[in-house]
């Protein structure tokens, strides 16, 4: 009995669904991505073998190679609340638009009110600049001297507002019968490797004067001895 030969056919793969999926993913990332805001200061940190990661909830003070201090808190709501506190303390008015713009910024190193020896842009002026203009500003650093210790006020008010926000979130979670998980606020100093040690020590004193004795020192990770 002769064998039956099955007709041969070339298999084909329909790529249309895969192409559609690829375009959907590209569209999703384009719509949800946000532009990264440029840092006004470049800090070349010293290296170390520590592999601890920077926590999410953090107030960070950067010190550039000239010893200028820059402030940043990475929590959107806490940034606005801290600005409101500073505005009340120094009798400065900020509009809602300025507050929203400030909350999107990264670190900054300009005074909120005039200080002796500086006649450049103040914080309100700095907020209303576009990104290119901000990058061109020669930031003098936030004052830390005993008569004009604005950096100390930023740190203190940031700490207070972070604690208030955490308590509010805890109350809401308990009212809804949910477990509350809170990452405590941390403090960090990111100093340039060429910065004068005395200037960094002054920044550390700003922390200790407010009874903050625990903070992270930001470094670049290098390979340790094997």
Quick gist of this model?
The chain is of the alpha/beta class and about 230 residues long.
What is the arithmetic mean of pLDDT?
Answer: 83
Number of helices: 7
Tell me how many strands there are.
Answer: 6
Low-confidence stretches: none
Radius of gyration: 25 Å
SSE string: HEEEHHHHHEHEE
Task: Describe this entry's structure for a reader.
The chain has 226 residues and is α/β, with parallel strands linked by helices. The chain has a domain at 188-226. 40% of the residues lie in helices and 10% in strands. It has 7 helices and 6 strands. The strands form 2 sheets. It has a 4-stranded mixed β-sheet. The chain has a two-stranded parallel ribbon with strand order 1-6. It is extended. It starts with 15 loop residues before the first helix and ends in a 5-residue tail after the last strand. The model has no long low-confidence stretch (mean pLDDT 83).
Topology summary:
Elements: H1 16-32, E1 47-48, E2 58-63, E3 69-73, H2 76-90, H3 96-104, H4 123-127, H5 131-136, H6 150-175, E4 186-191, H7 197-209, E5 216-217, E6 220-221
Parallel strand pairs: 1-6, 2-4, 4-5
Antiparallel strand pairs: 2-3
Helix pairs in contact: 2-3, 2-6
Key terms for this structure?
4-stranded mixed β-sheet; 7 helices; two-stranded parallel ribbon; single chain; 6 strands; extended; alpha/beta
